[in-house]
Model the fold of this input.
Amino acid sequence: MASSHDHIALPYRIVFLYIEPIAAFFGTFVTLTDPSKYLQSLSPSATSATYSPLTYPIYAQLAGHLLLFSWLQAGLLRSSSEVKIWKIVLFGILMCDTLHLYGDYVGLGAKAFFDPRLWRWEEWVTFGMTYGPGAMRVAFCLDVGVGKEDRKVRGS
Done:
């Protein structure tokens, strides 16, 4: 059953129904097929020698989480136009964003985490794909760009 998302602002729909699910799916693929590359993209001190095949189960589990995010956004959000459902899913992903950023903070250290001049292109991509959509998630959960008629749906 198709649902109309016209009452949800276009920027939210573009990011949450298309950009993020595609990025998460791509992340799933990279994490499963080249975990060493994934590790190096998140940790500047990592090298191909740093990765141990003994840790592959962790990467496979992480890939499962990325695939779930992709499915929730591309599948569940696309099939529901209820703001309440969108908020539940987006807040859950926001909690994950928080831990993701904490991991970046630990991996980079405070100096590099807070100084964009020290970021590699990988940090620019990671932070751009976390802070930008994360800010949009916060805005959506706070009803920014959600019309009055949509708030009535939320309370039902």
Remarks:
- The two ends are 20 Å apart (CA to CA).
- The mean pLDDT is 90.
- The CA atoms of residues 57 and 134 lie 28 Å apart.
